[in-house]
Amino acid sequence: PCVCVWLCVCVFTRNFPTSLFYRRVCVCVCVCVCVHRRIDHRLKRKDSTKTLLIKSEQLLRIQEHDFALRPGFGGAAIPVGIDVQVESIDSISEVNMDFTMTLYLRHYWKDERLAFPSHNNQSRTFDSRLVRKIWVPDVFFAHSKRSFIHDTTTENIMLRVHPDGNILYSVRVTVTALCSMDFSSFPLDTQNCSLELESYAYSENDLMLYWKNGNDSLRTDEIVLSQFFIDNFQASSGLAFYSSTGWYNRLFINFILRRHIFFFMLQTYFPTMLMVVLSWVSFWIDSSSITTVLTMSTIITGVSSSMPQVSYVKAVDVYLWTSFLFVFLSVIEYAAVNYCTTLEEMKRMKRGKIPVSTYSTSQAMAFDGCFHDDEMELTSFSRMLTPDHHTREMRPVGGTRLRRHRSVRENVKLLVRRSYMIDSYSRLVFPLSYLLFNAIYWSLYS
């Protein structure tokens, strides 16, 4: 700058040769010097952050140590405390038998190599750039399928170093882990799941994992799930053995999931109950139960498609297939009554015929509980109502005296002759049996 100012003064005070050539040279020199100084100033400002990082590395003496080795290498195992704050349980999949959890994972340990002098004893906080240059615990999630560290808007990693070398290393991570589920009582089931933490490379002789504050090391935000209640979160610890590498410390995040039953009551149980009750209509009127059978099959298929293909019977399978059996028996009962009625009427038609106009359709239904077309010949009812009929076994029902001891064959013949009795018994037996089944089922599984 001094040369530039001197040249300008010389030019404008005419103490310098007044040739046009020299004046142009003087101006060019001044411009070049000024531009160089401005560029140099900008470069220094751009490198200021790098200079600060270099100062931090110098403060922590990173270049003086080999951070590929753990603290206290060759001595006792380094203790690493862990605490976890569960932010959310994002999803639970019965089909894949896994769950997805987002959490804050914090590590605590001491590395005297990173100790630094401080007059006010204040800690220094860094981001992921410094984490890559020092030693950190290699904690991983056992039995995990997928996991990642959040990186919006920057990597969610925090490193805090205290003057005495104590370190806090925190990451925000989402992990999808295996949960072995037992669906024997589904959907009235309770599932026990756990997330397991362990060092990948360091056995218990080199690294000791522990919960920093005991049971208080595990904290949770308010978590609400659509299909489950979370009954309990609990921290525990243990050891894992690998035949080729030895024993490793392992920490467990245990939680219990209890399923909401109301959703399945609306989607499965109530429709199934209605289908079973609807099948009983055939005990009073002539209506086929084929539609209810098809509906039950649809419900069973829908429930099975949303569940894993397990090789044991679930509670919902017991209920659905038992209800299907009730509907199926209703169809069989309907077919049996119609077959017996038709068979008996054919036998009576061979014995004699009476014009149908003698009796109305409603009167015919009063005797056997079945609907008859007006064109059908009701010979059986004429004999029951004719006072001078000589066949003893065709007397009206009110005057019939049942024997005390009948063989099975005679009872079957009696039911064939009086098929309306099957409907009468079914109206009582089927509802009572289904109520008994529901009482046993809900007391056993709930």
Show the helix and strand layout.
Layout: H1 2-12, H2 20-46, H3 48-60, E1 78-93, E2 98-110, E3 124-126, H4 128-131, E4 139-142, E5 144-149, E6 157-161, E7 166-178, E8 190-199, E9 207-211, E10 218-220, E11 228-242, E12 246-259, H5 262-279, H6 290-305, H7 315-351, H8 361-368, H9 379-385, H10 408-417, H11 420-445
Parallel strand pairs: 1-9, 1-10
Antiparallel strand pairs: 1-2, 2-7, 3-6, 4-8, 5-7, 6-7, 8-12, 11-12
GO molecular function: chloride channel activity; extracellular ligand-gated monoatomic ion channel activity; transmembrane signaling receptor activity
Membrane topology: Multi-pass membrane protein
Keywords: Cell membrane, Chloride, Chloride channel, Disulfide bond, Glycoprotein, Ion channel, Ion transport, Membrane, Postsynaptic cell membrane, Signal, Synapse, Transmembrane, Transmembrane helix, Transport
